[in-house]
Amino acid sequence: MAEMVIKNGVVYDPKNGVDGERNEICIKDGKIVDNVGAGAKVVDAEGCLVLPGGVDGHTHCAGKINTARIMSPHDMRYAPVAGLSGPEPRTKLLRPQVGYNTPNTHGIGYRYSKLGYTTIAEAAITPMMARHMHEEFESIPILDKLALVLLGSNWQVMQYIQDGDSEMLKSYMAWALLASRGYGVKIVNPGGGSNWTWGKNVSGLDDKVIDFDVTPADILVGLAEANEALNLPHSIHVHCNNLGIPGNITTTLATMKLLEKVKASQDRQVMHLTHMQFHSYTGTSWMDFASGSDQIADYMNSHDHLTFDMGQMIFGPAMTMTADGPTEYRNARMFDAKWSNYDQELEDAGGIVPLSYTPQHFAHATMWSIGLELALLVKDPWKVMFTTDNPNGGAFVNYPEAQVLLMSDKKRQEVIAGFPDMTMDRISLPNIDRELDWGEMTVMTRSMPAKMLGLDVKGHLGAGADADVAIYDVKPDKVDVSVEHEAVKKALSFAKYTIKGGEIVVQDGEIMALPKGKVYWVNAYENGIVQAEKDRLMTDLEERFKKYYSIQLSNYMVEDAYVPRPVEIRPEVA
Amino acid sequence: MQTVTLTPKRSPTISIEAEMITPDAFAGKSAAEIGAIGAWEGNEEITLADIFDVAVDGSGDAADTKIIIDGDVPRVKRIGEAMTAGEIVVKGDVDMRCGALMSGGSITVEGDADSWVGREMTGGEILVKGNAAYYAGGGYRGETCGMRGGKLTIEGDVLDYLGEHMCGGEILVKGNARLLPGVLNWSGTITIEGDTTLPGGEMKSGTIFVKGKVLEMLPSYKDEGTEEVDGVMYRKYIGDLSRNGEGVLYVSV
Q: What is the distance, to the nearest Å, from the Cα of residue A88 to the centroid of all Cα atoms in its chain?
C-alpha cells in the first residue's frame, strides 16, 4: 500500500504524550510508522486538529437495533441533524440512507466515519443473536467493530457460580466468546434478565435469582474473577441493577465497592460501568429525585479500579434498547409508549421503547445535567469514556453537540437557562465551570476507550498503531471553543479527513471510499482452557442444549464464514 | 387572484409522487414554470407538463391561488401536501395522502380519496365528496400522533382506522365508517352519521359521536347513561378502559 504523510497538523495523542504539537504523522501499509520515503502522498492539514480515529466503546449498532427499526418506520424520516440524519438518496458510491436513531447499516458506517470515528463496539449481544449481528456488521462499511457478549443472566454462568465451579465458569466464558466471535463480557442488570423470564426483576445486589442460589453480587464477582483469570483484554462491562430508578445510586456505589476485592490481571480497570448517567440518581421517588454525580465522582476520584462512560442524554427523540427487559417494560408503562420485549431463552432478556427527551421536563433536564456533571467532576479523563449510550440517551450523530458541551461552559449555561425551575436544586452543573481541553477530549473519545477495551492498536498515533486518523477543520491554536462552540460543533460533525487503515475514507465531510472493516474477537478458549476442562464443558453443554435450548449445539456457533476479516486476539495464558 | 388549471393528459398506471401540487409552490409562477416542476413516476423523473396541460390565469400569492385539477387523478399522490394557504379543487378521484401535513387553506375532492387523506394535518379544511379509504385523518406509520387540527369532511363512506392516533381537530363522515374509527386517539372529535364497528379501540381521550348504529361494541367501555347533545339523544360511554382511557363515545339511541 502507498505511503502517506500528514503534515502541518496540530496533533493530540495523549497516550504518547503529544499535546497539540505540529508533528508529522507517517503511514505505511495501514499502520503508523516513524518515517516514510520521499514519494509518500502528502496530506496538508494546514494547522488543523489531528486526532486518532474515534473509538466508540459502547454503542448499539447491530442486533436488537433491527427490531427497533421494525418498530419505528417513522424514524426513517427524522432529520434533526442536517447531513447526518434523515433520508439521503443513493449516489454513485453510496447506498441510500434513512433514519436518525436507527439508521440503516450503511448509514451507520457513513455517519460514524463523517464524525471521524473508525472503531465501534456493539455493547450487548447474546451468543444466540451473534450470527445475525455479524451479518449486520458485514454491511456496516468502513468501521472496525467488536462485540460485547451478554453473560449476566445466563443459566450456565449462574449454575457454575452456584456450584462454586470456577473452572467451568472460566471455560464457558471463553467458549461463549468463541461461539459468538465476541470480544468481551457484558453484564446487564445481573440476574434481572433471568428473573424477567418469570415476570420479575431483582431490586439490588443481594436478591436471589429465581431457581438459582446466586445473587447479582455473586454473578458480578464470579464473572469478574473469571474474566481476570482468562486475562481478557477488556474487563467486565457492567450495566448495573436498577437503571433509571430514583435512589439507584445506592446500588451503583455498592457495585463499585463490591469490585474492590477483585484484582485486575493487567494494567486496566477491573470493571467498566456503562451509561453512568442512568445510574446516578438520589431520592426515593421522581418527586425528590436529584443528581448524585458528586457521590459518584468522589468515589471515582479516590479509587482506581474502575472506569465508566457518561450515557449523555440528547434532547429530542431517542430509542431505548437494552437487554434490561424489566426496565423497558417499566418505561413503556410510565410513558404510555409502544414497546417490544423478549426473552432470549437461557441467555438474557431485552426490550425496546422509543422515547423523547425534552428540556422542559425537569426530570429530563436533570438527567441531561448528570451526564455532563459526571464527566466534569471526575478529575482523571482516563476514567471517563464519552458516550450517549447510542441511541438510548441520544443518536451518535449528536456526539459533536455533547463534546462541545463539555468544552464550553457558555453553551451549557445557555441550555440551562431554558430549564424549568424545578430542575435547579437537583443539579450542580450550573456551578461547574470546568471546560475540557483538546487533550482531555481526545482521551475521552479515543485513547481511553481503546485502553479500556485493551485495543493496543487503536486510540493513539504512535508507531505500530492502526493508521486511523481524524483531521478536523478546527485550528486549536486560534479557536476559543468556549465562545465559538457552534463552529467547532460543525467542524467535528464533518471531518476534513477521516483516514481508516491508511486510506482516505472521508474528505471535506464526504465519503470517498468504502473499505470493509475488521472484526476484533478474543479467543481465550484455544490456548486458555486445557483439554480435560474443554471435554467437561462440552459434556455439560451437550446435555443442556438437549434439555433447554430451542436450537442444536451444532447450529449454535458463529462460523468463520460470518467473520470474513477477523482479528483474533489470544490472551497470554497466566 | 391566480387560477391554475391542470388537465390530465393520460391515465398513468404507476403512482406519481406530486407533493409539489400546492398553492405555495404554484403561486406567482407561469404555466411554463409550473409545467417544468419535477415529479416522480415510479422510479422515473418526469415533469408536471408530462401528465397535465397547464393553464394559468392571473397571478397571486399562495393564499390567493386556486388550483383546479380538471379530471380524475387516481394515481397522483400527495396533492396539497404541507400546503399553508389557498385552494385546491379536484374534479375527480385522488390517490393516497391528499392534504397530508396541511396547515391551512382548503382542498375539495369531488370524487373519492385513497388512504391517508389529511394525514397529520394541523389546520385548514378538506372536503371529500365521495368515499375515502383507510386511515383518513390518521398518522404516519409508527408515529403516535395523527391529525392535529383543522377539519376533514367525507360525504361518503370510509374504510378502517378513521382518525387513527388523532390528536386534535374535527372529522365528519356522513356515510358509514368501517372498523375501529378513532383507534388509539388522544384528542379531537369524530362524528359518524352512518354505522360503524368497534369505535374508539384503545382511545385515551377525545370524543366520538355515532349517529347511526354501532354494529359491534368494544367490551371495554363503561355505560354512563343517556345524554342529550345538540338536541340529539345519545347513550354515553367512557373508555377505552383497557388503556385507562377517558375518551367519550356517544351512540345515538
A: 26
* Residue A570 sits at the chain B interface (C-beta within 8 Å): no
User: One-letter amino acid identity for B127?
Assistant: L
Q: Which residue of B has its CA nearest to A73?
A: B142
* Separation CA A10–CA A474 (nearest Å): 9
| Domain presence at residue A520 | no
* B140 interfaces chain A, CB cutoff of 8 Å: yes
Give the nearest partner residue to B141 out of A74, A336, A338, using CB atoms.
Answer: A74
Contact B141 A73 (CB under 8 A): yes
Tell me the residue range of the domain where A416 lies.
51-511
Q: Give the SS3 label for residue A25.
A: strand
Residue A333 inside a domain? The answer is yes
Our count of domains for chain A comes to 1
Alpha-carbon gap, residue A27 to A33, rounded angstroms: 6
Tell me which residue of A59, A64, A60 sits closest to A132, measured CA to CA. Answer: A64
Burial tier of B74 (Cβ tally within 10 Å: 0-12, 13-18, 19+): middle
Q: Which residues of chain B have pLDDT under 50?
A: none
Residue A40 has pLDDT above 90, yes or no: yes
Q: Which residues of A touch B142 (CB under 8 A)?
A: 71-75
Single out the residue of A61, A58, A47, A63 nearest to residue A11, CA to CA. A47
Residue A466 DSSP one-character state: B
Chain B residues with CB-CB distance to A336 below 8 A = 204, 243
Q: Is residue A290 part of a domain?
A: yes
**Domain of A149: which CATH number?**
3.20.20
Three-state SS for B44?
strand
Provide, rounded to the nearest whole percent, the portion of chain A with pLDDT above 90. Answer: 98
pLDDT digits (tens, 9 = 90+) for B181-201: 999 999 999 999 999 999 999
- Asked, for residue A187, whether it belongs to a domain, the answer is yes
Q: What is the ipTM of this complex?
A: 0.86
Residue A308: strand pairing partners = A273, A384
Residue A84 confidence class, pLDDT cut points 50, 70, 90: very high
